[in-house]
Write a structure and sequence with these properties.
Layout: H1 2-7, H2 9-28, H3 32-47
Helix pairs in contact: 2-3
Organism: Ganoderma boninense
Protein name: CULLIN_2 domain-containing protein
Length: 58
Amino acid sequence: MVKEATLNIDSIAASSFQMQEVFAGYRQSSDVASKRRVREAINAALTSLPDWPQPLMF
């Protein structure tokens, strides 16, 4: 599991940075429609994430 986490650390860091940028833009936006689209996109992305860490198979 440590090896897999190490292999994916770059994409995890990039995803975290992107989510922070989206959230900052969301908070500063005054357009209700764009806020709704951002909220829907974030909710869709979060619900499609797999449970992590996945259960170990023995």
